[in-house]
Specification:
Blueprint (H helix, E strand, L loop, with lengths): L2 H21 L3 E7 L2 E6 H57 L2 H14 L4 H13 L3 H14 L4 H14 L2 H14 L4 H13 L3 H14 L3 H24 L3 H14 L4 H13 L3 H15 L2 H13 L3 H14 L4 H13 L3 H12 L6 H13 L4 H11 L9 E3 L5 E2 L15 E2 L3 H6 L10 H10 L1
Length: 459
């Protein structure tokens, strides 16, 4: 606005004021405080009110203008800071991924100093501390991040995996539990917490989580494995009940497991164990005989031998072997165990007959030679060789073979339902079982008594 226009506006206002004053010569009394009246001409009051309104309006306009300018300035400043912090963060993460841990630490610490409320910086810097073998410092950072954003699942996952690396499985379990509390159908957390319980052999807790995992749904390519794992865990819960003297409670569970997975060896073994503990030898024998016929696992033959020899009833066991060999003359595992039993019963000729059938297949493994050597020793042959075999293999009175995990090769003197090394159920079997079951003898025939006498004459 020019000076002339402003002066003209003032003149017009004065003219209007004089005109308005001439039309309204009367006074008006106003009370701003009790007992203190003020009297003014009406024109002055009206014009004063107008001027006051203009002043207040203009003041509000100036305040709004400066306030908007200040907000814009603060916003621009915040955006600039955010860009700088983001640039530092990205460079720090890039250094971390490239393996430049020292530089990554410097950049991420600078990022954190510039913006202490940025959660992803805490997580990235925690990864740096883990790389620097300082997991406790990483946990401290993650706890600070948790205070900032207590519902951030990434923080809890990072805490859980860090605790696991530190060997603090109970703390890791609590972190996974917090994730499940926030998101009850989080499959990754359910699976990880289940695995912790599996490793800690907390079978009931693992079973509950496995049921929840299947309930929330798993991908099609994992569904069969997860259902199988459910059976494994159910078996371990049943095994705990058996160990606690509650075999009757576990019986139905084992039967259901066998019904759902007929190839699950531990369930058949343990079901027979329950019947044996209940003094139901016939039921136990039936379970183990059916188990061997279905699965051809040596543990069933070992259990049958322990049962009948413990009952001082070797004749029934001999009848089982002879009948089974008639049905399956090519089953070298049967012949191997039958040969061992014959040695225990001092039936050396029949032992040799079956052991030779195994040897004729061309397979080579120490346990077979041990049995053959022992048989020859009992016929007063190769005493020096026998002593060497016994020294090398540690043969005991029962000529035990021991067991080996077919998944990882772990060896055990006694059969176990689950390999402690690789975690596989039902994997323990006779060493070199696959060689025996896959081989066939050159000729399977009876050895007549005349032939046996001829061998004896040769000796």
């Amino acid at each position: 606005m020019t000076l002339m226009a402003f002066l003209l506006l003032i003149i017009l206002f004065l003219v209007f004021f004089i005109y308005f004053l001439g039309l309204n010569p009367q006074d008006i009394t106003l009370f701003f405080l009790p007992d203190r009246p003020l009297t003014y001409p009406v024109a002055i009051v009206v014009v004063g009110a107008v001027l006051l309104g203009l002043v207040l309006g203009y003041g509000a306009y100036i305040y709004s203008t400066f306030s908007g300018f200040f907000r814009t300035w603060r916003k621009d400043r915040a955006e600039k800071k955010t860009k700088e912090v983001t640039s530092l963060y990205r460079e720090g993460v890039g250094r971390l991924l490239s393996g430049d841990i020292k530089k990554a630490h410097t950049l991420l610490q600078k990022t954190l100093d510039r913006d202490p409320a940025r959660v992803d910086t805490y997580i990235a810097l925690a990864s740096v501390y883990i790389q620097e073998s300082e997991p406790r410092e990483a946990i401290n950072l993650l706890l600070k991040a948790k205070n900032i954003d207590p519902r951030n699942l990434e923080i809890f996952f990072k805490m859980a995996t860090t605790y696991e690396e530190m060997g603090l499985l109970d703390d890791a379990a609590l972190a996974y539990q917090e994730i499940i509390t926030l998101e009850s159908d989080n499959r990754k957390a359910l699976r990880a917490l289940r695995d912790i319980h599996l490793n800690s052999q907390r079978w009931p807790e693992a079973l509950e989580l496995q049921k929840r995992l299947l309930k929330v749904g798993v991908s099609k390519n994992r569904q069969a494995d997860e259902k199988t794992k459910l059976l494994f865990i159910r078996y371990e819960v049943a095994a705990q009940a058996i160990a606690a003297g509650k075999g009757a409670e576990a019986k139905d569970t084992l039967k259901d497991i066998i019904k759902q997975d007929s190839g699950f060896t531990p369930a058949r073994v343990s079901l027979g164990d329950i019947y044996q503990a209940e003094n139901k030898a016939e039921e136990a024998a039936r379970i183990w005989q059916e188990g061997y016929k279905a699965l051809s696992k040596s543990i069933f033959l070992s259990r049958l031998e322990e049962l009948y020899m413990g009952e001082e009833d070797p004749s029934t066991l001999l009848a089982f072997y002879r009948s089974a060999i008639v049905e399956k003359p090519q089953d070298l595992l049967l012949r191997l165990f039958f040969g061992r039993l014959c040695l225990r019963l001092e039936m050396v000729d029949e032992a040799l007959e079956n052991l030779y059938a195994v040897e004729s297949s061309g397979i080579e493994f120490p346990q077979l030679h041990s049995l053959l050597a022992e048989a020859h020793r009992r016929r007063n042959r190769f005493d020096d060789a026998i002593r060497e075999y016994q020294k090398a293999l540690g043969i005991n009175a029962h000529l035990n073979f021991g067991y080996v995990c077919e998944e990882c090769g772990e060896e055990e003197a006694n059969w176990k339902s689950r390999c402690a090394h690789c975690g596989t159920w039902g994997s323990f079997a006779l060493p070199n079982r696959s060689l025996i079951t896959g081989a066939r003898p050159l000729e399977v025939r009876e050895i007549h008594h005349g032939e046996r006498e001829a061998w004896q004459e040769e000796d």
